[in-house]
Amino acid sequence: MTRSPDSRAARELAGLGVELVRADMADPGRMRNVCDGTHGVFSVQNPMIGGEHAEFVQGRNVVDAAADAGVSHLVYGSAGPGTPSTGVAAWDVNFEVAEYARSRGLPLTVLRPMAFMELMTDKDLYPPVAAWHLMPRLVGAERPIPWLAAEDVGALAARAFADPASYVGTDLALAADIRTLYECRAIWRRVTGRNPKRFPMPVWLFQKFVGPDLTRMWRWLATHDVDVDLTETREHHPTAVTVEQFVRRRTQPPGR
Ligand SMILES: NC(=O)c1ccc[n+]([C@@H]2O[C@H](COP(=O)([O-])OP(=O)(O)OC[C@H]3O[C@@H](n4cnc5c(N)ncnc54)[C@H](OP(=O)(O)O)[C@@H]3O)[C@@H](O)[C@H]2O)c1
Fold first, then answer.
1. What is the pTM of this model?
2. Which pLDDT belongs to residue 51?
3. Is the CB–ligand 1 distance for residue 7 below 6 Å?
């Protein structure tokens, strides 16, 4: 589902044989049409685009459309500790959307990663400013962080859809590796032979690009321990990549 079937990413998917459907999660009527007759729905919203209120409204629209259409399985791409009132708006919205889905009686699986490994590599997430400068400052370079690669969320969602008897009704805290940012930097140096690029920027300036919630999240991580069981994630997805495997894949050509 995309708002722009003509975008490069959408056309790449179509090239793999994926059927594209144009829809906007902000449009409840269109969402109902899209969910009609579907077996399952994977739902994820992005607060960075429209803000937390839009994220909640879109999440609720997807839940309502899936419930009204009577889909067999809703897999929700959540994030964070899975507790209410953390003060981090994006996580609180994730919690509320999952609660709303339960209240509508949907067969639900919640996938709940903490930090995506892509924070270290993907330019849209500003790694030189974020992962390599502000995160160490605000989270603390020595704080353990639970990491998962975004593509492994996709693999876990596929497993959940394939095995609803094991997954409906579960809420899974996910991490394939737990590493401090100091360790991540050392892994990067070991794999690439150099330090990751760092671009110092004051917090207030970064917030002009991304809003206040991301830095709030990082400050939360500085003061709260996160209880994630690596073995549980690996039982569900044995080949989920570690930080070292991820950095190797993203920084070295295949075959090395
Ligand atoms: N935990 C972490 O470390 C971490 C890090 C980064 C991101 N995240 C989370 O991961 C999620 C995805 O982030 P991302 O960076 O992958 O975002 P992204 O690259 O901007 O992708 C967003 C996707 O959502 C679709 N989308 C956005 N608004 C939509 C709407 N109104 N209706 C229908 N589709 C819509 C976009 O589709 P089209 O543009 O094709 O319509 C696109 O496929 C977000 O929830 C984000 O908060 C978490």
1. 0.95
2. 86
3. yes
